[in-house]
Amino acid sequence: MDSMGIMARKPTAADQALRLDNQICFAVYSTAHAFNRVYKPLLDRLGLTYPQYLVMLALWERDDVAVKDLGERLFLDSGTLTPLLKRLEAAELIKRTRSTADERVVLIALTPQGHALREKAKAVPQSILAASDCTVGELMAMKDEIVALRDRLNAVLGE
Amino acid sequence: MDSMGIMARKPTAADQALRLDNQICFAVYSTAHAFNRVYKPLLDRLGLTYPQYLVMLALWERDDVAVKDLGERLFLDSGTLTPLLKRLEAAELIKRTRSTADERVVLIALTPQGHALREKAKAVPQSILAASDCTVGELMAMKDEIVALRDRLNAVLGE
DNA sequence: TCACATTTAATTGTTCGCAATTGAATCCGC
DNA sequence: GCGGATTCAATTGCGAACAATTAAATGTGA
């Protein structure tokens, strides 16, 4: 077969598909890391990691919600969220309380400091926009495509 | 200001930008996780995690390379790669050897088993393609856009 | 009512991902 | 040569991410 040797061989479609450059998943994976690195210095000023920032974004839209609800919005499970939320509570940005109606449920609420942090966070998106060197319209179009892809992937998982 | 209270308030552009739905970074982040979950059962059969699969993809294209070279291709550093490569070595898929020319450098080479695994891996991309429910053309177009975004983000980091 | 299934968070263990540091090897200017 | 800067991989420590399990609370059917 000489698949690794000196002899020339016409690359098959399967060969091409295994090329790193051709993989959309690697494109998405490496772009996620690039975003993370761009966010890092901005979020350091807020005392947040990127996943913590996502949790705060979700809570600024709606708080007093169960861990499960937060997990569904962020596509994360309790194994990830429980320790992360404990760190946010230690930072006094949120408060965790058992629901009285259903004691299995832990409700997450913002503290005054948690609410207040939103003002400081408003500067973040425009810094990212600048770093992306794109227009808002371009980014939103891309975002819609990527979300559509994500939702199709998640649909397969749900089967 | 009543930013959290009952009074209605016209959402500003900054408010809109903080919405989770509007964030391309969250779209990318959550899509990366969705890919990971789709890959998981496929890669389990190969005995690889997703990052390990990426390393193998890179090595199938070119091996006998330094850790640093691998890191540049995958956008990862030695803190991530060193333990990952040790696990691949333990699985006998790669061999790590110090370069004789420059003893700081560790060269990564595929073992026969490492080469052989490529044949089994050929089935993976088409399964992903099916899960994405897209045409190859659509995916490649998206990939190019995302890579362009990644490269602009990385360019800002390099400044 | 009571057994049994389901739901919800928390926990445990493994693997990334990265910042910061370390230590060895190499390079470079003088 | 020699000394300091640089390069490279490894290490340490922390924070995700997730599978699998646990434990408690709740729901359901006979």
Explain this structure.
Two copies of one chain form a homodimer. With 159 residues, chain A is mostly helical. Chain A has one domain: Winged helix-like DNA-binding domain superfamily/Winged helix DNA-binding domain (Arc Repressor Mutant, subunit A, Orthogonal Bundle), CATH 1.10.10.10. Chain A contains eight helices and three strands, in the order αααβααββααα. In chain A, strands 1-3-2 form a three-stranded antiparallel β-sheet. In chain A, strand 2 and strand 3 form a beta hairpin. In chain A, helix 2 packs across helix 7. Chains A and B meet through helix 1, helix 2, helix 3, helix 6 and helix 7 of A and helix 1, helix 2, helix 3, helix 6 and helix 7 of B.
Main traits of this protein?
homodimer, 159 residues, mainly alpha, Arc Repressor Mutant, subunit A, globular, DNA-binding, transcription (chains A, B), Transcriptional regulator, MarR family (chains A, B), WH_DNA-bd_sf (chains A, B), DNA-binding (chains A, B), DNA binding (chains A, B)
User: What would you report as the Rg of chain A, rounded to the nearest angstrom?
Assistant: 21 Å
Main β sheet profile of chain A: 3 strands, antiparallel
Give the strand tally of chain A: 3
**Helix-and-strand structural type of chain A:** mainly alpha
Protein name (chains A, B): Transcriptional regulator, MarR family
Organism (chains A, B): Bradyrhizobium brasilense
GO cellular component, one term (chains A, B): cytoplasm
Pfam families (chains A, B): Staph_reg_Sar_Rot
